[in-house]
Design a protein that fits this description.
The protein is α+β, with helices and mostly antiparallel strands. The chain is 38% helix and 14% strand. It has one domain. The protein has 2 helices and 4 strands, in the order H-E-H-E-E-E. Strands 1-2-3-4 form a 4-stranded mixed beta sheet. Strand 1, helix 2 and strand 2 form a beta-alpha-beta unit. The chain is rod-shaped, with a radius of gyration of 35 Å.
Length: 172
């Protein structure tokens, strides 16, 4: 004799409420929100990296101007040409109240002529400048010449978006 085992019965369709559908829709909305946030974050990171690149290019351009000026000064002091350095005017007056920060803030990013360089011979401005008691030497033969180099540059794009200034002291 066989025993009759009752089979589980499914509830009638009227009792099914569709909870899985609601859960699936909520999960789909959450995944869509995560995707939108991910796109916004990646867009922001792209803008930040572009700004960093532009600022770095502007700094490198200003640094290149300073290195070129150092090369020019080196060739003038030693009276031997060093590479293909281009020259500029060297200011030799100390009391001009030159402030590199103010000078750089007066430059304009949208004017390519504003990419500029100032070279100042500040040997006489520095306290404790070595003097010769035997007489005076020509100015270009100072024992320890000191120069202040200030350069301003942009990132050289059609519409520059970053600028940088470099101010340094150079002793050839």
């Amino acid at each position: 004799m066989r025993r009759h085992v009752p089979q589980p019965t499914l509830p009638p369709r009227a009792n099914q409420r569709g909870a899985v559908l609601y859960i699936a829709l909520v999960m789909l909305i959450l995944l869509a929100l995560i995707g939108i946030i991910g796109m916004q974050v990646s867009g922001l990171q792209e803008k930040m990296s572009a700004n960093y690149r532009n600022t770095n290019l502007a700094f490198q351009n200003a640094e290149a101007q300073v290195r070129n000026a150092e090369c020019f000064i080196e060739s003038q002091i030693n009276r031997t040409p060093v590479g293909t350095c281009t020259g500029t005017i060297v200011e030799k007056v100390c009391d001009t109240d030159f402030d590199a920060t103010d000078w750089a803030s007066e430059r304009a990013m949208d004017d390519p002529i504003q990419d500029s360089l100032v070279i100042r011979a500040i040997t006489k401005c520095v306290a404790g400048e070595p003097g010769l008691s035997m007489g005076t030497a020509p100015e270009n033969e100072a024992a320890n010449p000191i120069f202040q180099l200030s350069a301003y540059s942009t990132d050289y794009q059609v519409n520059p978006s970053a600028d940088a200034a470099v101010d340094t002291i150079f002793r050839p």
